[in-house]
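QA checklist item 7 of 12: single-chain prediction sanity check.
[x] sequence parsed
[x] length recorded as 160
[x] structure emitted
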Amino acid sequence: MIDAKTISKMAEEFVEGTPGFVVDVSVAAGNVIRISLDNDDNTSIENCMALSRHIEGSLDREEEDFSLDVGSPGLDQPLKVLRQYKKLVGKQVIVLPKVGKKIEGDLVSVEEEEGEMSGLVLKTLEKKRIEGRKAKQWVEEEHPFNACDLEWTKVKISFK
């Protein structure tokens, strides 16, 4: 069976020094290889095709047959790596804490520890009733989260 670590190393070496980065690599039964590739700018089909050709050229089908799928992470997929979080600072995201309800807001900052996302700060804007006032007022709040307290973080899809 083809090893996911080997594939991951090949992919990481290929994108090194480029705006591209590997989000996830998996190898399922029957050597079904799936690589999720993102980019600091925009992921293009050309980037995915180039990585696919590189991996295919590095493996020997005579030795082990395989299936290879290289694509970008879907907009509906949770963020997995620090670089995804960093590229979304200033953008709208949705977080689901392990305790509580979903919160939508602007990703203000990302904290890192040893190359991993350790926390983030989300800024929300919502109408709340202020004591002593009849009408609700817009209130801006910052919500800090530790990575261990989050189920997932996703990009908020907007068609504005």
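[x] summary fact logged: The longest helix spans residues 45-58.
[ ] second reviewer sign-off
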